[in-house]
# Entry
Amino acid sequence: MGHPPRQIGLQSSPASADAPAAGGEQRGLAARRCAWQVLQAVAAGAYADGALERELGRVNLSPQDRALATELAYGAIRQRRCLDAWLDQLGKVPAERQPPKLRWLLHLGLYQLLHSGRIPASAAVSTTVELAKRGGLGRLAPVANGLLRAFLRCQEAGESLTRLDAPGVDAAERLGLRHSLPDWLARDLLQWLPPQGADAFGAACNTKPAIDLRVNRRCTTPEALQRALAAAGVQAVPVAGVPSALTLQGRSGDLRQLPGYDQGQWCVQDRTAQRIAPLLDPKPGERILDACAAPGGKSTHLAELIDDQGEVLALDRAEARLRRVDRNAERLGLHCIRTACGDAATLAARQPELLGQFDRILLDAPCSGLGTLARHADARWRLDPAAIDGLVVLQRQLLDGLWPLLKPGGRLVYATCTVHPRENGELVEAFCAERREATLQGRWQSWPGDLDGGGDGFFAAVLERVPD
Ligand SMILES: C[S@@+](CC[C@H](N)C(=O)[O-])C[C@H]1O[C@@H](n2cnc3c(N)ncnc32)[C@H](O)[C@@H]1O
# Structure
């Protein structure tokens, strides 16, 4: 893993990067401080999204600085393992034994040197040292300076992580180090995929996810929306293989300010997620159950596909998230969605009058989320592989509990945003093997980055109930 050499002090720095701002503080310092706080909060157990939102709420940053804080915080969290490996290599004290505040500050500085091609090395080093001084690590500022400069010398010499080529390092550790993945996941990936596929998965997990829109075809077309966005200075392009998707290019700012938002002409939905609802092949007038519905991305898609004629029962056990389904449906002008709070696994037992009543059922099951690691920067460090056992039990209970609600001749789609075979193919195969009236019509696994170079990883299986 060689890096192009970067020489400190030789690059000309854009004014926004490291010149003093009005008020005396170096430009970009507040954004980096914000990112540093997020790294510390996440290390203390906070979720990355929530921690970032909180920190951004505390400071008044320009849109550019908000984007910088977001990029640095999420990037450094994703690359935690690689950054620690560099600290182990460069420092006298291993990363794990560094004072945590210093460790996360060094991550921030190193991340800029390793991964942010547009930040001059001089700005990355000087802002890190300045933050150390202002952030209660004054005594350690020379350590930060020395370590980052040592890294730059390695970069100039074309050196990479020595651990990658060390004797005794196996393929899983190498994959984990290359793409900053935990060992258990790297090991699993090499079981599921050929080496190039595992590498592509790792790379996709560290790529900033695209912002994809789903066009509400009840009130506009992708072409018309594309034109309206272009007129507002936002470039959006179609996604091959996903007819209602447009993906935004470049910075788009506050999405709610974009044309068509208030009129319900579009919603944000990942391109792969947009392929799930059509698998149900829903028709106007049908009765549809979306069993794990919140926040409603697929419920609203189903309602659009049936032209708001029929019924979509959007069930979820998380009441607060269910309110988002109502809000989304309202903005998109959809009236056929009815929300209900409750446990989908026991719905049939609680309401036996619903047995055999639904033409279509979508089970977008709670899962390990291994297909969305790029979107959730901290998820790979949070996930306990032992928790997969519990998820598989829950997924099976949901499938068993929902199946009797399907009409004979009806269709159920089981979907997850994970790539773990135990939560996906193995689960539906075991289910169908035990149910003579269930036929598996088809299944697909999409890997992160598979769809026109982007998209989350999703699994879907189409099951039909044999007519009586
Ligand atoms: C993958 S998310 C659903 C995303 C949603 N389908 C969409 O497209 O916006 C899974 C959902 O399952 C819900 N859930 C988990 N266990 C459940 C249960 N036993 N009954 C109902 N909902 C459940 C969670 O609250 C969560 O909202």
Q: What stands out?
A: The chain is about 45% helix and 15% strand. The CA atoms of residues 428 and 461 lie 7 Å apart.
